[in-house]
Amino acid sequence: MQATGILNTLKKVDQSKTFQGFVIFVIIVSALSIGAHTYHLPPWLEQSLWVLDIAITGFFLFELIIRFMASDGIKSFFSKGWNIFDTIIVIGSLVPLGGSTILLARLLRIFRVLRLVSMVPELRMLINALLKAIPRMGYIALLMFVIFYIYGAIGSMFFANVNDFLWGDVSIAMLTLFRISTFESWTSIMYETMEVYPLSWLYYLSFIFLTTFVFLNMMVGAVLDVMGEETKIMRDEQGDNCDTEKLEKFGGIEINSNVKDEQIRQLHEKIDKLTELILEKK
Questions:
Q1: Rounded to an integer, what is the distance from CA 202 to the centroid of its chain?
Q2: Rounded to whole angstroms, how far apart are CA atoms 82 and 78?
Q3: I need a labelling partner for 57 at 20 to 30 A (CA). Which of 17, 89, 168, 211 fits?
Q4: What is the domain count for the chain?
Q5: For residue 133, which of 123, 145, 141, 144 has the smallest C-alpha distance?
């Protein structure tokens, strides 16, 4: 019974907005301390930052232990990808700052800033949407590569005699086309070829239309589509959590995020018994 009480306390602490806000504050302080190491600082300040780093690492380890103990076992804890991510980041932070490993330790500590993503639900939603959109974006990127290759081959065949440095072969031509797609001095490249081929502007405008306007918007559309799905999932989860909290207050039954049929049945039994008592009194 005492263990259950401790577990409930740890869950409340882990889910507390105040505690989560303090964790985010420590992550920001950690990021600032990492940036401070890139400056030439007096020895006393370097020593202070070293002590601060030890305190931050200890706090992150403490916070991870609380989250682990508040979960329903090892399997439940590591079933969430963000918990695995945070565990790797915290373990990497345990590399000591000193000796031959100082560069590696500082490099690993830089990634502690990414913990901000795992702490803020909206940022997690954005990352999840981006990861889920990668397959769709991959097909769009493949189609873009085909267009780049076709235009690169055409450009190399026609414009190599104009500027061999920019159009010497298909790979260099594709690199030039990438520069054109970013609008980096593309007009100077176009005017150079127009001196020999006056209608070459059609080549550039059609390429820019396909890559910059069509494919770029397709990429944005793929990400927005997945973001809409992730936003709906996040709202549904928040709605389920609100319903669960109401059921817990009303029925006095311990309910996890996924309400089980057995627990709902118990709640109905309690309501039936309460109804029978009221009818007997009447």
A1: 41
A2: 9
A3: 17
A4: 3
A5: 141
pLDDT tens, N- to C-terminus, the chain (282 residues): 556 667 778 778 777 888 888 888 988 898 888 888 788 888 888 889 888 888 988 888 888 888 888 887 788 888 888 888 888 888 887 776 665 666 777 777 787 888 888 788 778 888 888 888 888 888 888 999 999 999 999 999 999 999 999 999 999 999 999 999 888 888 999 999 999 999 999 999 999 998 888 888 888 888 888 888 878 877 776 665 555 554 444 444 444 444 456 667 777 777 777 777 766 665
The count of other CB atoms within 10 Å of the CB of residue 216 is 14
66 and 36 housed in the same domain: yes
Signed CA dihedral, 199, 205, 208, 211: sign only? negative
Give the burial string for 64-88 (b: 16+ CB within 10 Å, else e).
bebbbebbeeeeebeeeeebebbee
- Cα–Cα dist 9/1, whole Å: 13
**Burial class of residue 213 in the structure, from the number of CB atoms within 10 Å of its CB (0-12 exposed, 13-18 middle, 19+ buried):** exposed
The CATH number of whichever domain residue 91 belongs to comes to 1.20.120.350
Which domain does 262 fall in, by range?
A: 252-281
Report phi then psi at 96, rounded to 5. -70, 145
What's CA 121's distance to the chain center, in Å?
Answer: 10
- CA pair distance 23, 113, nearest whole angstrom: 11
CA-CA distance, 148 to 32, in Å (whole number)?
42
Q: CA dist 164 to 161, 170, 236, 243, Å?
A: 6, 11, 58, 68
Q: Is the four-CA dihedral 178, 184, 187, 189 of positive or negative sign?
A: negative
CA dihedral 262, 264, 268, 273 (to 10 degrees): 60
Looking at the fold, whether 135 and 57 belong to one and the same domain comes out as no
